[in-house]
Amino acid sequence: MTGDALTLQEMQGVCWIVLVFLTLGSFFLVSVSFAWSVLAGGVISNISFLVSQKDIKGFVESVTSYPELEGREAKAKEGQKGYLLKFWLRIAIIGVVLLLLIKSGVVNIFGLILGLSTVVLAVTFISLDVIRRYYSSGRR
């Protein structure tokens, strides 16, 4: 981590590390099919997070590139529509992929849910680490 702040790239790395641990743990503690399901859900979750991160970054950069307030406001309204369209399209694609995986019967539902929770678990671990560092530094 760079200093006290965690970059989005580092957070993405933590998400992939969490997925590796969840997948390996599932493989050794549960079964191969459960581990496959965790991996499938985690890949979907992490790719969605990556795409979302790029969309938000692109939106913010496009809006802030205008020096005058009127230009930023117009670009923000235009960009908001594009961002929302991409967001709902991504949700629909994820829904179709999940439907196909579940209908095909190749995934364990609970493993898939665990994998889909990868980003949430990574954010939780990062938050707990930030709290731990805050209190261990003597600040209160």
Hey, roughly how much beta strand do the residues contain? under 5%
Summing up helix and strand content along with how strands pair, one would put the structural category as: mainly alpha
| Structural domain tally | 1
Provide the gyration radius in Å: 19 Å
Shape: flat
DSSP helix fraction: over 70%
How many beta-strand segments? 0
Count of runs of 4 or more consecutive helical residues = 5
Verbal overview:
The protein has one domain. It is flat, with a radius of gyration of 19 Å. The protein has helices at residues 8-29, 32-64, 69-104, 109-116, 118-136. It has five helices and no strands. The longest helix has 36 residues, at 69-104. 84% of the residues lie in helices and 0% in strands. With 140 residues, it is mainly alpha-helical.
Per-chain topology:
Elements: H1 8-29, H2 32-64, H3 69-104, H4 109-116, H5 118-136
Helix pairs in contact: 1-2, 1-5, 2-3, 2-4
Pick out its properties.
140 residues; flat; mainly alpha
Quick recap:
The chain has 140 residues and is mainly α. 84% of the residues lie in helices and 0% in strands. The chain has one domain.
